[in-house]
Design goal:
The chain is an all-alpha fold and 115 residues long. It has six helices and no strands. It starts with a helix and ends in a 13-residue tail after the last helix. It comes from Arabidopsis thaliana x Arabidopsis arenosa.
Length: 115
């Protein structure tokens, strides 16, 4: 389960861009999930060799939506819950590599530990 929690934030923490702190997160799990759903096949199917344009577009869109610290926290919570639902079939190495594969630059490492 700890590995799944680590994967949960690892999967898409890369979509979280630095932004100002505000009092209210405007991001919903529905928005997070709908943007990242096209990546599920790549993260769970060894036969798919790239994230694909729909996955990359969703990640880019979500990256533009996470504007505040609260948005980033909310996105992380949503991603962890979604990862739990998918289960142990998620590939952490592929998740960590999505920013590079999609050409999305982020200012920090995607390798984090979640307890």
């Amino acid at each position: 389960m700890a590995g799944l929690m680590k994967l949960g934030c690892l999967v898409f923490v890369f979509v979280i861009a630095a932004g100002p702190i505000t009092a209210k997160a405007a991001l919903s799990c529905g928005e997070v999930n709908s943007n990242l759903k096209p990546c599920t096949g790549y993260l769970t199917n060894g036969g798919i060799t790239s994230p694909g344009p729909q996955c990359c577009n969703g990640v880019r869109k979500l990256n533009g939506m996470v504007l505040t610290t609260l948005d980033r926290r909310q996105a992380c919570r949503c991603i962890k819950n979604a990862a739990r639902n998918v289960g142990p079939g998620l590939n952490a190495d592929r998740a960590a590599g999505i920013p590079r594969r999609c050409g999305i630059k982020i200012p920090y490492s995607t390798q984090i530990s979640v307890r």
